[in-house]
Amino acid sequence: MSTPRATAPAPAGRPTASHRSLTRRGLLAAGGAAGLTALLAACGDSGGSGSSDGGDGGWSFTDDRKKKVTTDSRPEKIVAFTGAAAALHDFGVTTQVAGVFGETRTKGGKADPAAGRLDVDRVEVIGNAFGEFSVERYAKLRPDLLITHMYDPDVLWYVPEESKDKILKLAPSVGVTTGRIPLKKVVERYAELAESLGADLSAERVTKAKDRYEAAAERLRRTAKGSRIRVLAVSATNDTLYVAGPTIQAELMQFKELGVDVISPTMKGQDYFESLSWENADKYDADVIMLDERAMSLQPEQLKDKPGWRDLPAVRAGQVTGWNYVAPYSWGGAAELLEDITKAIGEAKRLD
Length: 352
Known about the structure:
Layout: H1 32-43, E1 59-62, E2 68-71, E3 78-81, H2 82-91, E4 97-101, E5 124-127, H3 135-141, E6 145-150, H4 164-170, E7 173-177, H5 183-196, H6 204-224, E8 230-236, E9 240-244, H7 250-257, E10 261-262, E11 273-277, E12 288-292, H8 300-303, H9 307-310, H10 313-316, E13 320-323, H11 331-347
Parallel strand pairs: 3-4, 3-6, 4-5, 6-7, 8-10, 8-12, 12-13
Antiparallel strand pairs: 1-2, 8-9, 9-11
């Protein structure tokens, strides 16, 4: 599996974790591999069981692989990457999502930030980390459709390469591009997918969230205009400061489009992050630092004794803001990202 955004610390949404072998859960403890084979055979190669009724009797959606995905009826049992499920939930696709894969629950059992407003107690978690995807649990759900992000072209996010063929035999799949295009376009694609699945985009909660996004975009545009505030987006580990740029990552591309001076790291090729040793952490002159809030990224309290961090001008000036790296690709999730950076820029001063 390709690992986009993969030079960053073990990501929950766009990871860099080393690939772990597929976790086999206890579903087929008695039957072992033979039980899995039976389940695969029962589901067949036609692309999932579908539902007995689904409105007009058929469903189709052309995904971002330019692949027209069809089922006999509108999918009623969906398994999705947690971030995709969170986005669909915000648009109104709720009861159809039967299972999720990807960071969903924390070690304490609470909802992971990547789950957004998804009710994690209602869904079957068939993998809770990068590299985990229980084919057995997935097969037992008899899914109609699998949905996930695509940070790199044609790469289905969090679908393990070693079991991909088995997984994709069980149900048709939809991939939504989430890298190399601005945030707004990602949200619009999830809105289109949600509508095809029965969501009412004219519902009050959806229209209110979109209005909030549009207002947030306009406020950011006004705030950024002429501000001259330079923004650096980073993740941090004990050994490395990872610098993200606005050429691939959707939210940073959107900030740039709205006038924010997002620093572009001088990376080789097209990667999600540039890796800097702490001795070189001051490579870029930044007025505001956006710090990845995920658990795998060190936070200000953990970084305070690291000279490479505490000596950065933005850190000394107290101009560090959180970066919700796993915000849902919905109008509400996008609005929150825009509101956070607007506040940070509006309160910052230029550090020359």
